[in-house]
Amino acid sequence: GAVVSQHPSWVICKSGTSVKIECRSLDFQATTMFWYRQFPKQSLMLMATSNEGSKATYEQGVEKDKFLINHASLTLSTLTVTSAHPEDSSFYICSAASTEVATAFFGQGTRLTVV
Amino acid sequence: GQNIDQPTEMTATEGAIVQINCTYQTSGFNGLFWYQQHAGEAPTFLSYNVLDGLEEKGRFSSFLSRSKGYSYLLLKELQMKDSASYLCAVRAYASGGSYIPTFGRGTSLIVHP
To answer: Which residues of A touch B98 (CB under 8 A)?
Structure first.
């Protein structure tokens, strides 16, 4: 099946610093990438949707200046959490989809802890 | 928008059968997915239904009724490792020709001996 690689799997950073998370589709061209956030014991919450070569569409309540999304190629999307704060600590998961595959495939997730 | 509803928690006995229901309201329906998620891990794909009926895949089966906005995931011969969250996700057409999957809150299944 299709593989989506997300890196890093976990990261600890100091408050006020920025963290970049990468999401790569390894064997298919991902025209659409989704970024989710999941707090403990809660469901996945969509943060933004990005199509290759265009600006990301953010969900209501998600600050686009804080969560920078870049989808420069059909195989790579990045999420940068800028000026991270402890309340940004969460599990971030990317998902990649295209017209080639019927479903969306998830990366392994990134556990972000801001101290 | 979309509204997806599934039970918060279910318990079952090892070896038994359990059915997890999901109801949804959406426009531009383009498929329903079931995922399994263990704590701290990414969801793993279980099934995909776009037409009415039952899809069987080993111990897991998924059913869809588009007219009723209803789906269920059926797990047979339950094993302890099946204890996890089960997420129902609905995909719908969005503006611009893309599609957006929306997840329900998930059902936490606890399998006990």
So the answer is: 31-32, 49, 51
Name the E strands within B9-93. Answer: 9-13, 18-25, 29-37, 44-49, 53-57, 60-65, 70-75, 84-93
Query: How do A10-13 and A110-114 pair as beta strands?
Result: parallel
Residue of B nearest to A60 (CA): B1
pLDDT of residue A67: 96
Cα–Cα dist A66/A69, whole Å: 10
Alpha-carbon distance A95 to B101, whole Å? 10
How many other C-beta atoms lie within 10 A of the C-beta of residue A51? Answer: 17
Q: Which of B7, B15, B5 is nearest to B82 (CA)?
A: B15
Q: Compute φ and ψ for B96, nearest 5 degrees.
A: 90, 0
Tens digit of pLDDT for each residue in B13-63?
A: 999 999 999 999 988 888 899 999 988 788 888 998 999 999 998 999 999
